[in-house]
């Protein structure tokens, strides 16, 4: 734990005037607890830096932030984080109920990206649920389209369509097919499911927005198994050279693909180092840490002159008792009772985490 004096900075999400000073402590590689003088301490939970602090800052130096050459670019409020936490919980719960209603589906890969979806639709993305084709919106290319169920849950909770519709998942005449389809579902920008293509689509979109001098940001979500596709690496080469500041790519590095563990089939190794080698601004992040994801997106958007990738270290099947930690959890069959029990367990564990009675 490290304390120091925080010099005045540009704050994005907090109103303050005069010479702002505060105390900070380093508790995590990416997330920093701060007490801002004059602001209720429980309101500020994190500061967002342009670059991360050194892994082991010297506590003997009573150092100000500037000693690390870091620039604070934003403040994460407790209320924002609480909202994101509630949103992530709701997305996970609705995804499980949605799949439980159907009795089978891509549960593993849907649940590993829940926190990412919560940050994207809860704070990062500019979208208008009442006008899905709003011209100024940010675009999401959900390249691992088989994880559609959690994206549908996020879109429904955000208000793009009624929650009731989730019960029609993958059934005849539905607007919510197994894989994402832009012609059917409000809020889906690009049809996906044929793995390997989404990064190329995202690069094309980002290039077009840049040429048109538009402010839209393009987000792309790739699977780790998907990164074994040849087309991905052709696109990584182009993306490194194209230096698209309006593009943020995520890799859901859940270490599992369709039929087993990545390391047993075709290891990907250090993805951050590989993309960096191709010229990208790259970050490794805990993909279930909401504050870390939010901070990483902020840092990515501030990375000048480079396209950005965020490698999310995640757990396939996260939060579902019969799927998490299971080798073959890519596509599973389950009974409604099994899923109801798993949802009940999820609710109990959340209660325990929050110090509530179950
Ligand atoms: C081009 C192509 N080949 C094969 C498939 C079948 N397929 C669907 S999901 C999947 C595994 C994807 O693994 P990963 O990218 O790690 O996604 P996760 O399920 O872990 O999210 C495969 C091979 C496909 N959809 N597209
Ligand atoms: Mg995977």
Keywords:
358 residues, alpha/beta, Rossmann fold, 2 domains, globular, disordered N terminus, binds thiamine diphosphate, binds magnesium ion
What does this structure look like?
This protein is an alpha/beta fold and 358 residues long. It has two domains: 4-77, no CATH class; 80-313, Thiamin diphosphate (ThDP)-binding fold, Pyr/PP domains (Rossmann fold, 3-Layer(aba) Sandwich). It is 34% helix and 17% strand. It has helices spanning 78-102, 107-112, 114-124, 148-158, 198-211, 230-242, 262-265, 271-277, 290-302, 336-353; strands at residues 4-6, 22-26, 32-36, 44-49, 72-77, 104-105, 139-142, 218-223, 247-253, 256-257, 260-261, 281-286, 308-313, 332-333. The chain has a five-stranded parallel sheet, with helices on both faces. A three-stranded antiparallel sheet has the order 1-2-3, with no helix packed on it. Strands 4-5 form a two-stranded antiparallel sheet. Strand 8, helix 6 and strand 9 (247-253) form a beta-alpha-beta unit. The two termini are 33 Å apart. It binds thiamine diphosphate and magnesium ion. Magnesium ion is lined by residues 109, 223-225, 254, 256-257, 316.
